[in-house]
Amino acid sequence: MSPKYYIFDADGVLIDSLSTACRMFNLIADEYFPCLPKVVNQEDMALAYPGLFRTSFKRFGLDEQDVIKFFDLHTEQMSKHVDELIPFELVLRAISESVAGRCAIVTSSCSETVRAVLSKSTFYNDDMFTDILGREYRQTKTAKISNLLKNVGIDASEAIYFGDMVSDILYCRGVPIRIAAVGYGYQPMDYLSAFDPDHILPSQQSLASFLKGF
After folding, report:
1. Helix H segments across 119-188?
2. DSSP string, 60-119
3. What pTM was estimated for this model as a whole?
């Protein structure tokens, strides 16, 4: 059954931000949490985030408040470096041509930052996404996706989420909602495949073709 509603992660799916995210991760770790590993690429991100965000750092000795502090600082730093972040134009074009007005963004990033980056694209406009739900909601992606679908009157079986990390797959199973994992984002495709997402989209082109197919 073709989806009626499409939900996208931002970083790694709509926005090219991996290198900046890694640099900010290391900057924060060096100053506040030296127990965290250094990250420079997809493979390192798979090591740092093997599961849900709120639990991935526990094995490095961080408690719940430490995790909140880390992600608050990371969100702040990413917002300060918005000039370094660029939208994935091929994906934005496919959304604008195929599913605009029938899609939303659910992200762990600040929604203001997401809008600022997407606004760099000639394919973006304010009516493209019905909602952009970011970190300011202080909810898990499972809760944000569930509440979003309730508000737009769409059953989870009629929707699909596009993510780039194992945490996205796990959060989607909590809804539950179909999950398409992309391989050009924060974690490697072979790693994501091991968690059995509903769809595997290795490239921006494959995501664009997927959207156009519906």
Report:
1. 141-152, 166-173
2. GT--HHHHHHHHHHHHHHHHHTGGG-EE-HHHHHHHHHHTTTSEEEE-SS-HHHHHHHHT
3. 0.96
What does the alpha-carbon distance between residue 184 and residue 208 come to, in Å, rounded to a whole number?
Answer: 13
Complete edge-to-edge strand list for the sheet that includes strand 5-8: 132-133, 103-106, 5-8, 159-163, 178-182, 199-201
Cβ neighbors of 6 (< 8 A, separation 6 or more) are 95, 99, 102, 103, 104, 159, 160, 162, 211
147, amino acid identity: N
Residues 6 or more apart whose CB falls under 8 angstroms from that of 30 comprise none
Residue linked to tokens 């989607």: 172
CA dihedral 55→58→63→64, nearest 10 degrees, is 0
Give the number of residues written for the chain: 214
**pLDDT, tens digit, for every residue of 153-196?**
999 999 999 999 999 999 999 999 999 999 999 999 999 999 99
CA distance 214 to 200: 16
DSSP structural state of residue 137: G
For 35-59, write each residue's pLDDT tens digit.
999 999 999 999 999 999 889 999 9
Q: Which two tokens stand for residue 178?
A: 């179909």
